[in-house]
Design a protein that fits this description.
- By secondary structure, this protein is α/β, with parallel strands linked by helices.
- It has a single domain, classed as Response regulator (Rossmann fold).
- Helices cover about 45% and strands about 20% of the residues.
- The chain is built from five helices and five strands; from the N terminus they run E-H-E-H-E-H-E-H-E-H.
- It has a five-stranded parallel β-sheet, with helices on both faces.
- Helix 4 links the parallel strand 4 and strand 5.
- The radius of gyration is 13 Å and the shape is globular.
Length: about 120
């Protein structure tokens, strides 16, 4: 089962994304949820079997690391890991320039997130 890291500090959004993952991949899907990109990065560095990172751009403790910086760090250290960046602001170009495989503008249609997750894990 895939190991997924979710970085989102808004409880309604993180709950929805976790529910979508479980619906698509089953209850045994392993989702590690963080509200801060720096804490997620520490986890990813300790768990090299992470396959997918889904991150918001603006998170808690973003003065240490935001979602774009997390994306860049993940892609530099683990180029095989897929990164989905999401934001309510327009960071599309910046996300892609820093290695994001997918970018979703909030609020996004559920089908967009489902398709991005499916494509990420093929």
């Amino acid at each position: 089962m895939p190991k997924i890291v979710l970085v989102e500090d808004e409880a309604p959004v993180s709950g929805m994304v976790i529910d979508l993952i479980k619906m698509q991949l089953g209850e045994e899907a392993e989702v590690s949820h963080f509200t801060s990109a720096i804490k997620a990065w520490e986890y990813i560095m300790a768990h090299s079997d992470v396959q997918l990172v889904i991150t918001d751009v603006n998170t808690e403790e973003e003065e240490s690391m935001n979602g774009i910086e997390l994306c860049r760090a993940v892609k530099q250290a683990f180029s095989h890991v897929t990164v989905i960046v999401m934001s309510g602001r327009n960071y599309h170009l910046e996300a892609l320039e820093n290695g994001a495989d997918f970018y979703l503008s909030k609020p996004f249609p559920l089908a967009e997130m489902i398709n991005a997750i499916k494509e990420s894990l093929e």
